[in-house]
From TrEMBL:
Domain ABC transporter, residue spans: 4-226
Protein name stated in the entry: sn-glycerol-3-phosphate import ATP-binding protein UgpC
From-to range in the entire protein, with total length: 1 to 226 of 350
Subcellular location: Cell inner membrane
Name of the top EC class for this enzyme: hydrolase
The protein's Enzyme Commission number: 3.6.3.20
Keyword Ubl conjugation attached: no
The organism of origin for this protein: Martelella mediterranea DSM 17316
GO CC term (a single one): ATP-binding cassette (ABC) transporter complex, substrate-binding subunit-containing
Gene Ontology terms describing biological process: carbohydrate transport; glycerol-3-phosphate transmembrane transport; glycerophosphodiester transmembrane transport
UniProt keyword annotations, A-Z: ATP-binding, Cell inner membrane, Cell membrane, Hydrolase, Membrane, Nucleotide-binding, Sugar transport, Translocase, Transport
């Protein structure tokens, strides 16, 4: 069974133009899939349909065996990481990390344990009492990842998470994501327009063009075949 199964999925925003056109991807447990392709090719729309932030016009998405088409984002057992971090500015790092867990009624002791574990993994321990404004861009991005990690979801969905960072930080955060991926082995879908990011992170790349899959394969298959 695939961790995520995207079957004949299409998105029509209006008229008969398909922003995503009959896409099939079967994602194995623990696989890191990167969606690439030119601006407007449908990467973000496809990711948002998996996340439940956009309705699915046609087709079916299954996560951990369940059809999620009609489920709310919160019910889908996924955690999303955005480029703008989406942190709560008035909350401390600790409470930013804990917030999602508090909301779904996780016991306090377990919240503390999971937050501590994520903070350790992401080297955020010294900053737990700070507000986001007192953090660097890289630290904020780590908090955003921490919020996803503490939930222990079936899948991570990344929407260009590093595109707001400067070039140097992007390279180091790319390495951190790779490291976390090895350590956690969580099934992931990652959207980027950065080829190096795609090549470094992907088990398999999906190249979209005009809403359709143009190529799918390992970075070696996609970038090095004549
Ligand atoms: P990418 O993430 O690859 O840049 P998008 O998924 O954002 O591509 O967009 C795919 C297509 O869908 C584009 O033609 C875009 O203009 C269109 N689109 C995206 N969001 C909307 C929307 N909310 N309403 C109408 N059209 C949209
Ligand atoms: P709230 O207004 O949500 O209660 P608090 O700042 O009082 O926010 O913290 C909520 C809970 O998280 C409290 O039980 C607090 O003791 C705990 N907490 C806050 N910061 C830390 C931390 N750095 N380490 C462990 N627990 C913490």
């Amino acid at each position: 069974m695939s961790a995520i199964e995207i079957s004949k999925v299409s998105k029509i925003y209006s008229g008969d133009q398909r922003a995503v056109d009959s896409v099939d991807i079967a994602i194995a447990d623990g696989e890191f899939i990167v969606l690439v392709g030119p601006s407007g090719c449908g990467k973000s729309t496809l990711l948002r349909m998996v996340a439940g932030l956009e309705t699915i016009t046609e087709g079916e998405v299954k996560i951990a065996g369940n059809v999620v088409n009609r489920m709310d984002p919160a019910e889908r057992d996924i955690a999303m990481v955005f480029q703008n971090y989406a942190l709560y500015p008035h909350m401390t790092v600790y409470n930013n990390l804990a917030y999602g867990l508090k909301n779904c009624g996780t016991p306090k002791a377990e919240i503390a344990e999971r937050v501590a574990e994520a903070a350790r993994m992401l080297e955020l321990e010294p900053y737990l009492e700070r507000k986001p404004r007192a953090l660097s861009g890289g630290q904020r991005q780590r908090v955003a990842m921490g919020r996803a990690i503490v939930r222990k979801p079936a899948a991570f969905l990344f929407d260009e998470p590093l595109s707001n960072l400067d070039a140097k930080l992007r390279v180091s955060m790319r390495g951190e994501i790779k490291h976390l991926q090895k350590r956690l082995g969580t099934t992931s879908i990652y959207v980027t327009h950065d080829q190096l990011e795609a090549m470094t992170l992907a088990d398999r790349l999906v190249v979209l063009n005009g809403g359709r899959i143009e190529q799918i394969g390992t970075p070696l298959d996609v970038y090095h075949k004549p």
